[in-house]
């Protein structure tokens, strides 16, 4: 026996209406809404209504759905068939096929056909027209479920809106924090640059007197001002020597003996 339908989520949609037959439904309302849900764990219910003239219904048991799986040709486990059926009903290609009565504005039969994508197997539900209080009850149930679905979506939207608001506040706070950090960083960078400049100027002021003092030291002063140079006595050239006159030359001992 296939698994039950306890986790089946309700599905709402608007089918594309197609009329068949000689009359083709001229003048009939084409605004229909369908509602697929699981009233209990063993049945699937399909309700289609225009809320004015016509309401249709189909109820399938789990065993009937299992037979449908065989006729459609969806192999594999039961869950694969359920997933394919849900995907088909939620697709854009869901049609309500109405067969018109001859020379009448009414439809004698209806069928809801869903297809996941072109070329894939079709899921088809033959519908039974409801009348009197059954139709009124079905429309009332459909209206109430639509309202519940709307409230649920509205609640989710408000939650998401609040979440977005909180995220916006967090992002704004982070942006402000980053801007403050960036400003502080730039200020610190300017201070450090100014401090380095001042340190360089202080070093220049301290080293300047030392250089001047070193330049005026006795050793360096002496090197720069060597003082008066020593006069070296130079030999007087022979032609400039004074001539000595009137000198009496005495004969040597050898001359006397001679």
TrEMBL record:
<feature type="compositionally biased region" description="Polar residues">
    <location>
        <begin position="210"/>
        <end position="219"/>
    </location>
</feature>
<feature type="compositionally biased region" description="Basic residues">
    <location>
        <begin position="231"/>
        <end position="244"/>
    </location>
</feature>
<feature type="region of interest" description="Disordered">
    <location>
        <begin position="175"/>
        <end position="258"/>
    </location>
</feature>
<protein>
    <submittedName>
        <fullName>Uncharacterized protein</fullName>
    </submittedName>
</protein>
């Amino acid at each position: 026996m296939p698994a039950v339908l306890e986790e089946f989520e309700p599905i709402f949609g608007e089918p594309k209406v197609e009329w068949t037959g000689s009359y083709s439904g001229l003048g009939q309302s084409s605004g229909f809404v369908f509602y697929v849900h699981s009233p209990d764990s063993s049945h699937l219910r399909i309700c289609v209504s225009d809320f004015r003239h016509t309401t249709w219904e189909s109820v399938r048991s789990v065993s009937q759905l299992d037979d449908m799986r065989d006729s459609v040709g969806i192999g594999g486990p039961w869950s694969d068939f359920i997933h394919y059926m849900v995907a088909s009903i939620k697709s854009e290609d869901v049609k309500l096929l109405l067969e018109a009565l001859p020379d009448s504005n009414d439809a004698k039969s209806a069928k809801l056909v869903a297809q996941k994508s072109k070329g894939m197997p079709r899921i088809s539900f033959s519908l039974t027209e409801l009348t009197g209080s059954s139709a009124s009850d079905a429309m009332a149930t459909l209206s109430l479920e639509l309202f519940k679905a709307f409230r649920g979506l509205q609640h989710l939207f408000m939650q998401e809106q609040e979440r977005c608001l909180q995220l916006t506040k967090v992002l704004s706070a982070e942006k402000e924090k980053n801007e403050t950090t960036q400003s502080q960083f730039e200020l610190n960078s300017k201070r450090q640059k100014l401090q380095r400049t001042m340190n360089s100027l202080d070093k220049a002021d301290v080293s300047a007197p030392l250089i001047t003092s070193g330049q005026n030291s006795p050793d360096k002063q002496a090197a720069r001002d060597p003082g008066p140079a020593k006069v070296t006595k130079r030999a007087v050239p022979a032609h400039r020597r004074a001539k000595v006159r009137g000198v009496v030359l005495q004969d040597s001992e050898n001359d006397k003996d001679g």
